[in-house]
Amino acid sequence: MEPAAPQPILSSDRESRFLSAYDAYVKSIYRYIYYRTGQEKADAEELTQEVFMRTWAYLQKGERPIEELRAFLFQVARHVIADRWRRHKPTIALEDVDPAEEPHTEAASPASVDMIILEQHLLALPEKYREVLTLRYINDMTTEDAGKMLGMTANHVAVLTNRALNKLRKMLPES
Q: Where are the transmembrane segments (predicted)?
């Protein structure tokens, strides 16, 4: 009888940590990707899946330990978004768009209309402002956590947040 092949010592630890992180952060990562990209829900789900697949592959390598898994997941999400933009640049030419053709839309509630308006203006903000607002208000990160993820001080995150909110307020229609 041959001895069993040695198992990695921390494989069950890695797996349980990963599964716990998935349960804890999948919604936050999804929201982050959705609001950063303005993608369709299916695309945001696909990108979210890619974040966790890359994270699992990294954990399997076991090269360097991850101190803050939440911040690591958001960093991976940033890279996944950047990779998607590089691979999938817009392919529709403006001359191919018929201005007379309007998309069919269903009636929306006032709250969903407000959210649509907010999303459109959020997407119109410069990338750094959109990212900091997404982290702070959609993902409920503190300035310290957002700073760790972005490689900035908490003070710098607070300043960017303030500037982004001021710019967003100017863009929103008066009600």
A: none
